[in-house]
């Protein structure tokens, strides 16, 4: 039973870290390059096009895990310590609040989609303006 509790605790910590990364993305002190790196990691995770096809045993999913984890880690490392601490504190407060779990889950999924859409808009905007120079 203790392994199950440990697994639940680790899962909660990972969810909190991802939510904190989202909150830090929304901070105005974060540069566009950090946002772009995060968008690329999320985009690769949900993209049907992979470097190694998923039908390839083990390596098909391993490349997804490695690239997405590396993107999250790199974007997390590029954040300032102050932004990381503030967003992590806010994430812990939100995750441990008394709101119903289903409402919070809907919030997290909605924020993830908003994050993805806004990152795509920023990417397209930058792409369009790079050609006009």
TrEMBL record:
<keyword id="KW-1133">Transmembrane helix</keyword>
<dbReference type="InterPro" id="IPR010652">
    <property type="entry name" value="DUF1232"/>
</dbReference>
<keyword id="KW-0812">Transmembrane</keyword>
<feature type="transmembrane region" description="Helical">
    <location>
        <begin position="104"/>
        <end position="128"/>
    </location>
</feature>
<protein>
    <submittedName>
        <fullName>YkvA family protein</fullName>
    </submittedName>
</protein>
<dbReference type="Pfam" id="PF06803">
    <property type="entry name" value="DUF1232"/>
</dbReference>
<feature type="domain" description="DUF1232">
    <location>
        <begin position="35"/>
        <end position="69"/>
    </location>
</feature>
<feature type="transmembrane region" description="Helical">
    <location>
        <begin position="30"/>
        <end position="47"/>
    </location>
</feature>
<keyword id="KW-0472">Membrane</keyword>
């Amino acid at each position: 039973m203790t392994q199950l509790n440990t697994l639940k605790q680790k899962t909660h910590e990972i969810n909190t870290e991802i939510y904190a990364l989202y909150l830090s993305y929304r901070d105005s002190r974060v540069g566009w390059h950090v946002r772009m790196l995060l968008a690329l990691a999320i985009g690769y995770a949900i993209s049907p096009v992979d470097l190694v096809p998923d039908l390839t045993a083990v390596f098909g999913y391993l490349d997804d895990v490695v690239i997405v984890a590396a993107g999250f880690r790199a974007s997390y490392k590029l954040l300032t310590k102050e932004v990381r601490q503030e967003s992590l504190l806010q994430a812990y407060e939100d995750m441990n609040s008394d709101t119903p779990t289903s409402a919070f889950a809907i919030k997290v999924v909605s924020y993830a989609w908003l994050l993805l859409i806004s990152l795509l808009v920023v990417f397209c905007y930058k792409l369009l303006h790079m050609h006009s120079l």
